[in-house]
Amino acid sequence: MKYEEALAKFEPVLGLETHIELGTTSKMFCGCPTTFGAEPNTQVCPVCLGLPGSLPVTNHAAIEGIIKIGLALNCDIVEWCRFARKNYFYPDMPKDYQISQYDEPLCIDGHLDVEVDGETYRIEIERVHMEEDTGKSLHVGGSGRIQGADYSLVDYNRAGIPLVEIVTKPIPGTGDKAPLVARAYATELRELVRSVGVSDVRMEEGSMRCDVNVSLMPRGASEWGKRTETKNVNSLRSVERAVRSEIERQGAVLDSGGKVTQETRHFSEETGATTSGRSKEEAQDYRYFPDPDLVPMAPSRDWVEELRATLPELPAARRRRVQQEWGISELELRDVVNAGALDLIESTISSGADAASARKWWMNELSRRATEQGVELAELPITPDQVARIQAMVGAGELNDKLARKVFEGVLAGEGTPDEVVAARGLKVVSDDGALVAIIDQVIADNADVADKIRGGKVAAAGALVGAVMKASRGQADAGRARELILERLGVS
């Protein structure tokens, strides 16, 4: 069913469960390292492998991290909570249970505001709780999924890494903006967690993963429909596409008289559609019970307030500040944020550039080059310090914008620092009167008709001669000084 047709008949209700790996140096319940990309099964021990007799010990830094996230999400930090065992079998679960939290999470009742098309949506947070990550299965052969694979391998390096789960309450009332609201929430959450400094939230590396819940109910109905849970969606764009795909699919099922099955589903990056995974378990299916090996946690109020005092400026407040400081519109700010340029521009300003110039270079010249190369802006091989240095040379009259673009080209090509590129390519502006006069006299001789017009009072025609001087000097002439000398040589005041 087409998206518009589905929304004409049904109202979507969303829910998002986001898993975030914390950037601690050791795992949640043991001392094993957490280095990403290490050789498979080299960062394991009896505790994270669940060998008999091993006992877990809670990672203090991980608890600090989840409390900071909870505070940033306006949650209440409870005075007492405990870990539970979530029992289920899967090959990447070496203990056959996962240490998690069930009915007594650490952080509850928060919210996060997001904006879509000028409208603010408050996303209510039900809980933020701590658990341990699972291992990683690699299905070899076929499509890369377990169905049709020739065999499977398991890497337990990830098993036991501190994992924060952030669960929203149901999100009704988003209408045709549902996919955009879901994406905006995931985007804002990623920026918030990154600002707190407890995770790199790199979706491409799996340190942030979203489970997207969608249900539909007929327009005018009061009872929500059966939900599906699309698991482990690993990009912001895919969060949006997964919501849209499920609305279209469930709409078609319901419109034909069928029933939506409560199940987990998988999202395909190639097709943009979801496929069935397995029936969705209820809480009782996991046989939760308090973990007998871990003592309850009772974070003191003093500790919580100490952590609150360490929180940095959060993304929403930061955006309001820079918008005012830079003197830009909400639309311009949105473009900066969407381009991933906010940090880069602020760092460039801190290195000495003015706000307008820093934004100009990152949002125009460098954004264009990032698009051409198919990379994120921050992945370009140039630093805010180097951008600020190039702008300083422009401000000092040593470069014009055309030459500056050539300096950017050289730095991005690995030719060295901005000063080294300028020296190697001979790119400094020619402002020496002697050198300019020689070029100007030749240009006047080659364009006698234009020179006569200028002598006759058509001063605006000097622009053509300035252009010819710039061409003859390969863009290195000081255009302002060139115009002054042209008029002087032609006897025009």
Automatic annotation (TrEMBL):
GO annotation terms (biological process): glutaminyl-tRNAGln biosynthesis via transamidation; translation
Taxonomic superkingdom: Bacteria
Region spans: Disordered: 263-282
Catalytic activities: L-glutamyl-tRNA(Gln) + L-glutamine + ATP + H2O = L-glutaminyl-tRNA(Gln) + L-glutamate + ADP + phosphate + H(+); L-aspartyl-tRNA(Asn) + L-glutamine + ATP + H2O = L-asparaginyl-tRNA(Asn) + L-glutamate + ADP + phosphate + 2 H(+)
Domain Asn/Gln amidotransferase: 343-490
Enzyme class: ligase
HAMAP family: GatB
Family: Belongs to the GatB/GatE family. GatB subfamily.
UniProt protein name: Aspartyl/glutamyl-tRNA(Asn/Gln) amidotransferase subunit B
Gene (UniProt): gatB
